[in-house]
Write a structure and sequence with these properties.
Layout (H helix, E strand, L loop, with lengths): L11 H9 L8 H9 L4 E4 L7 H10 L3 E5 L3 H13 L4 E4 L5 H12 L5 E4 L9 H6 L3 E6 L22 H4 L5 E5 L4 H10 L6 E4 L7 E7 L3 H12 L5 E4 L3 H13 L4 E4 L5 H13 L4 E4 L14 E4 L6 H8 L9 E7 L1 H13 L4 H19 L4 H8 L12 H4 L4 E3 L1 H17 L6 H9 L4 H5 L16 H13 L3 E4 L4 E4 L4 H5 L5 E3 H7 L8
The structure holds adenosine-5'-diphosphate and zinc ion (ZN).
Length: 530
């Protein structure tokens, strides 16, 4: 009969064993599968590696008809379909990259009820004919993967997702399941509203990944710090290193190889065969380190990744958590290591300013960056910060992050912060010009670079009042003030300006407390208490 696949009506646990080879469900999987098999809707928030796919694949097999999976990751569809086919599942994908003939064949198979699972990119739904096609077959369920893409305030908004709300009206009797690994309470609410999942059951797994040790270090020389980290703690381990640009990916991979580490590069600009080769080596061989842009990792399932390192600041906590979540899926001790410095803050603020987004987009990107910075500059347990960011309760201290293991000493930086802020204000007011961090630091240190003397900055009253500090120490302070929002970096040149929040500090009504190590380690043996 059309729609009558070999597993229709079977017990989900039997399908789990027979098709996927697993003995038991994990976490909420069983309850989620039951909810969909029984015809209800579900919203599933589960961290990366939690096992979301099973939650819709099994109901797709057990219910009559085809499970339609909406996924934005066209590049991954092929792999997902191939993996399902290997397990004997009748799976296919429809996307614009396919030939007309292939598309026709998939459409025929769907109409004839010969498909258990059909992957579609959300934008296909607005292509002419797709809705008519879907109406000509029988739909077991709709699965909306990466459901956070519906959130305008999230880090990965995709306008096509907004159309998915219409599925509820057109197919009111077809169960729908929305899944994501990156939901804050706000995004959770948006998913529920915009996808019309008012009657859904909600399954929120714990976002804690207790086996991952979070560490954030101050960036001096990212490449040599990374090499020391890998050689010292992860020699021979598989790992992923994330960098922001293609160039940095290639340079870093080369530097790791020079240091005797088995590293491969991966980014979207490489020829397909090189990317496939890098991915295959990473998956099949032991101890390969992939240096990649964020293009790498989605849908890649390697259980024994021992570390994820970031040598550039991620753009959001959601992104950071998703990327670090690729470490330690096997539950064994693993590390998430991040190096960040002043340059990251300035560069990302500039990228946001010069980007092509509108004011709302820029404000949103700034909000995400600021949250990331509060994690980095913060003195709270990293895990607690992360878990609470995702709206869940967490103990005061986890015992397995850099803050818990080596509590940062706090240091009262009010006086140098006042020096820095008033230098910024004076150069603006008295010289009627604006300057980037480097010039302010020259003024504070009384160093007469050409531009400084040319602009007669050496006549300012703050000239040379910060001699005792090294450039690195001042940069550490600038970074902190930017991170906590006392300073802003504006425009293409990263011009510094104080915010309103700086006023109470200048008046002496508020203190600036920062991590001692930032100013202590940055110096060249000099006292940090200048
Ligand atoms: P997510 O999409 O949530 O990141 P996946 O669906 O890719 O996670 O699953 C992560 C890994 O866990 C995969 O290797 C998957 O096969 C495995 N897995 C999922 N469910 C189970 C289970 N019940 N028992 C054992 N392994 C499972
Ligand atoms: Zn901790």
């Amino acid at each position: 009969a059309p729609g009558g696949g070999p597993h229709v009506g079977q017990d989900p646990l039997a399908v789990l064993a027979e098709v996927f080879g697993y003995a038991s469900f994990r976490g909420d999987q069983e309850a989620i599968v039951r909810q969909i098999v029984d015809g209800g809707d579900a919203v599933v928030l589960m961290p990366t590696g939690g096992g979301k796919s099973i939650c819709y694949q099994i109901p797709a097999l057990v219910r009559e008809g085809t499970g339609v999976v909406l996924s934005p990751l066209v590049a991954l569809m092929h792999d997902q379909v191939a993996a399902l086919q290997l397990a004997g599942v009748r799976a296919a994908a429809l996307n614009s990259a396919m030939s007309i003939e292939d598309r026709r064949e998939v459409e025929r198979a769907y109409r004839a009820g010969e498909l258990d699972v059909l992957y579609l990119a959300p934008e296909r739904l607005s292509a002419p004919g797709t809705v008519q096609l879907l109406e000509q077959g029988r739909i077991a369920l709709f699965a909306i993967d990466e459901a956070h893409c519906v959130s305008q305030w999230g880090h990965d908004f995709r306008p096509d997702y907004l159309r998915l709300g219409a599925l509820a009206e057109r197919w009111p009797d077809v169960p729908r399941i929305a899944l994501t690994a990156t939901a804050t309470p706000e995004t959770h609410r948006e998913i529920t509203e915009r996808l019309h999942l008012e009657n859904a059951r909600h399954f929120v797994s714990s976002f804690d990944r207790p086996n991952i040790r979070y560490r954030i270090v101050s960036k001096q020389n990212a490449r040599s710090q990374l090499i020391a980290f890998i050689q010292g703690e992860h020699s021979g381990d598989a790992g992923i290193v994330y960098a922001l640009s293609r160039k940095r990916v290639e340079q870093t991979a080369a530097a790791l190889r020079d240091a005797g580490i088995d590293a491969v590069a991966y980014h979207a600009g490489l020829p397909a065969h090189e990317r496939l080769d890098a991915q295959t080596r990473f998956l099949r061989e032991d101890g390969v380190v992939v240096v990649a842009t964020i293009a790498f990792g989605m849908g890649i399932d390697k259980p024994d990744v021992r570390f994820v390192a970031h040598i550039d600041l991620p753009k959001s906590i959601e992104g950071y958590y998703q990327e670090t979540g690729r470490a330690g899926r096997d539950g064994l001790p693993s590390q998430a290591w991040l190096a960040y410095g002043l340059q990251d803050v300035v560069q990302q603020r500039q990228m946001i300013e010069s980007g092509d987004g509108d004011a709302a987009t820029r404000a949103n990107q700034t909000r995400h960056l600021n949250q990331m910075l509060s994690l980095c500059e913060g003195v709270e347990c990293r895990r607690r910060f992360l878990i609470r960011y995702f709206g869940q309760d967490a103990p005061e201290a986890c015992g397995n992050c850099d803050v818990c293991l080596d509590p940062p000493k706090l240091w009262d930086a009010t006086t140098p912060a006042q020096m820095l802020l008033s230098t910024v204000i004076r150069t603006q007011r008295e010289r009627n010009r604006t300057y980037a961090a480097g010039q302010h630091i020259d003024v504070l240190r009384g160093v007469g670079s050409e531009r400084v003397t040319q602009m007669r900055l050496d006549e300012l009253s703050t000239w040379g009042i910060g001699k005792e500090w090294s450039v690195a120490q001042w940069r550490g302070l600038v970074r902190h003030l930017l991170a906590v929002g006392l300073l802003e970096a504006r425009g293409e040149w990263g011009v510094l300006a104080p915010t309103d929040a700086a006023k109470p500090v200048l008046r002496g009504d508020e203190q600036v407390m920062m991590r001692e190590e930032v100013v202590a380690k940055a110096g060249s043996g000099r006292s940090a208490r200048g």
